[in-house]
Amino acid sequence: MMVAGFGFRSGATLESLRAALALAQQGLPPVTHLATAQTKATTLAPLARVLGLPLAEVAADALAATPTHTHSAASRETHHTGSVAEAAALAAAGPDARLLRPRQISPDRMATCAIAQGTP
After folding, report:
1. How far apart (Å, rounded) are the C-alpha atoms in residues 30 and 4?
2. CA-CA distance, 65 to 52, in Å (whole number)?
3. Which residues contact 105 (CB under 8 A, 6 or more apart)?
4. Span of the secretion signal (predicted)?
5. Which of 34, 38, 58 has its CA nearest to residue 47?
6. Considering only CA atoms, which of 93, 90, 85 is closest in space to residue 23?
7. What is the rounded distance in angstroms from the CA atom of residue 100 to the CA atom of residue 85?
8. Residue 120 included in any domain
9. How far apart are CA 96 and CA 78, in angstroms?
10. Share of the chain above pLDDT 90, in %
């Protein structure tokens, strides 16, 4: 299971999300799932549909309980985690998940994506 976790600002576009995914996925096997915070799932759903991938909605308590490699002050304040992208990827990939790529930031700085590998 390869999970692309996403964090993004409210104005993020489908292009922002695609760009963050492309940066994070470079040199890695294709992702099999997308993940983000429950509160952000509606915005990520169109990308999941376009790619034909399932979307995991990660609860706020799971995000806060998942350690991350990178830290954003805005993410910490709003979602109680250092990186929504990393926490979502790791939480959705299961208890033995490992982060393959820390969050990558889209060129427009509107979206981040991290890749985790785990077992369902």
Report:
1. 9
2. 29
3. 20, 23, 111, 112
4. none
5. 34
6. 85
7. 12
8. no
9. 26
10. 78
Helix boundaries (H) for the chain:
14-25, 41-51, 60-65, 73-79, 84-93
The tally of domains found in the chain comes to 1
Phi, psi dihedral angles at 116 (to 5 degrees): -125, 150
**Could you tell me the pTM of the whole model?**
0.92
The CATH number of the domain holding residue 82 is 3.30.420.180
**Which residues form the domain of 50?**
2-115
pLDDT digits (tens, 9 = 90+) for 35-75: 999 999 999 999 999 999 999 999 999 988 888 887 787 77
Beta bridge partners of 113: 6, 104
Q: Which long-range contacts (CB under 8 A, 24 or more apart) does 62-65 make?
A: 62/87, 62/91, 63/37, 63/87, 63/88, 63/91, 65/91
Token digits of residue 22: 């492309």
- CA separation for the pair 78, 47 (Å, rounded): 23
Predicted pLDDT at 120: 65
